[in-house]
Design goal:
Layout: E1 11-20, E2 29-31, E3 33-37, E4 40-41, E5 47-50, E6 69-73, E7 78-82, E8 89-92, E9 99-104, E10 107-113, H1 116-126, E11 142-146, E12 152-153, H2 156-159, E13 165-166, E14 174-178, H3 179-191, E15 206-209, E16 222-226, E17 229-240, H4 257-262, E18 267-268, E19 274-285, E20 290-292, E21 296-299
Parallel strand pairs: 14-15
Antiparallel strand pairs: 1-2, 1-15, 1-21, 3-4, 3-20, 5-11, 6-7, 7-8, 9-10, 10-11, 12-13, 14-19, 16-17, 16-21, 17-19, 18-19
């Protein structure tokens, strides 16, 4: 049960950072502001890389995806992709080619293929090994765009029956993470003799400052004061972590210390003992509001 809206909020925070990830599993773009849509931040996970069978590809299979850096150009009408050793790839945000069907986790969804030039660009870059040399029998890849007409819903079990659409995200529109959670992890890594890690490894959309460590796990709806009124994000499911946080976003090399450290204190009974870090959230108010760094966020603790 969540405290009534009229009750004073238990915690106050602020938006410290905003990230959007236009292409699933590629690098993110840090923004000072972003439009909130029902599927999360505008253009988040709107594109995805797939193999020849239409199955999605992530850093789990292709760590070099971390090195692909997108940027919005020409007033947001163009998506530019850069990667080491490659000429830049320029894509019109509103341009697609042939319709297709692809699979992301258990969902088969309609999408649009982005054409042969984009396909060759991703195939060429992801075919290289850590030393930048071609791998034998490297697979071929294609880039696809989510069909915005389709409604791919988050798990109704976790949303409490609320229909929360998302695009190519793992399953929820927005990932919220407190800066204090990362600070606590880095303190543990330092004690174990490791260097600190960047928050980019955890791919949050919204980073909050002012929470106690992992308070995002314990609060109800996050009420964000925007210029248009109040936007509300409701945390619904702890975010289970795969090996991606072990991948250095600057080198695409993996080492085990991050998940090994999380194993010592972040096993979560709510998701059958999986390691969790951050909260998957849904948009319950404020579609089309503009979120900005510095906006205040208030919430109250859940008692359930």
């Amino acid at each position: 049960m969540t405290a009534p809206a009229s009750a004073p909020a238990d915690v106050q925070a602020r938006i410290a950072r905003l990230f959007v990830y236009p292409i699933k599993s590629c690098a993110g773009i840090e923004l000072s502001e972003a439009v909130l849509t029902e599927t999360g931040l505008d253009l988040d996970r709107a594109w995805m890389v797939v193999d020849e069978e239409g199955e999605f590809i992530s850093q789990r299979e292709a760590p070099r995806m971390a090195l692909i850096q997108p940027a919005f150009k020409r007033g947001g009408t163009e998506l530019q992709l850069r990667a080491p050793g490659m000429l830049a790839l320029h894509l019109l945000v509103d341009a697609v080619e042939a319709p297709t069907r692809v699979r992301v986790w258990d969902d088969e969804v309609p999408a649009y293929d982005m054409g042969d030039i984009a396909a060759q660009w991703f195939t060429d870059f992801l075919a290289l090994n850590d030393e930048g040399l071609p791998r034998a029998n490297a697979p071929k890849y294609r880039l696809v765009r989510f069909d915005p007409v389709h409604r791919r819903l988050s798990s109704l079990q976790w949303t409490g029956g609320i229909e929360a659409p998302n695009q190519f995200s793992d399953g929820y529109p927005v990932l919220v993470l407190g800066q204090s959670a990362l600070d606590g992890l880095n303190a543990r890594l330092k004690t174990a003799g490791h260097g600190p890690v960047d928050i980019r490894r955890f791919r949050p959309n919204i980073v909050l400052e002012g929470l106690e460590a992992h308070d995002e796990d314990r609060v109800g709806p996050l009420q964000i004061a925007t210029d248009q009124g109040q936007a509300v994000l409701t945390p619904v499911k702890p975010c289970p972590r795969c090996p991606i946080p072990n991948i250095d976003p600057d080198t695409a090399r993996s080492s085990p210390e991050v998940n090994d450290t999380l194993q010592t204190y972040r096993q979560d009974a709510r998701v059958n003992g999986a390691l969790t870090f951050g909260m998957n959230s849904i948009v319950t108010a404020g579609v089309d509001h503009v979120l900005r760094v510095g906006q205040t966020v208030s919430a109250s603790y859940r008692f359930d």
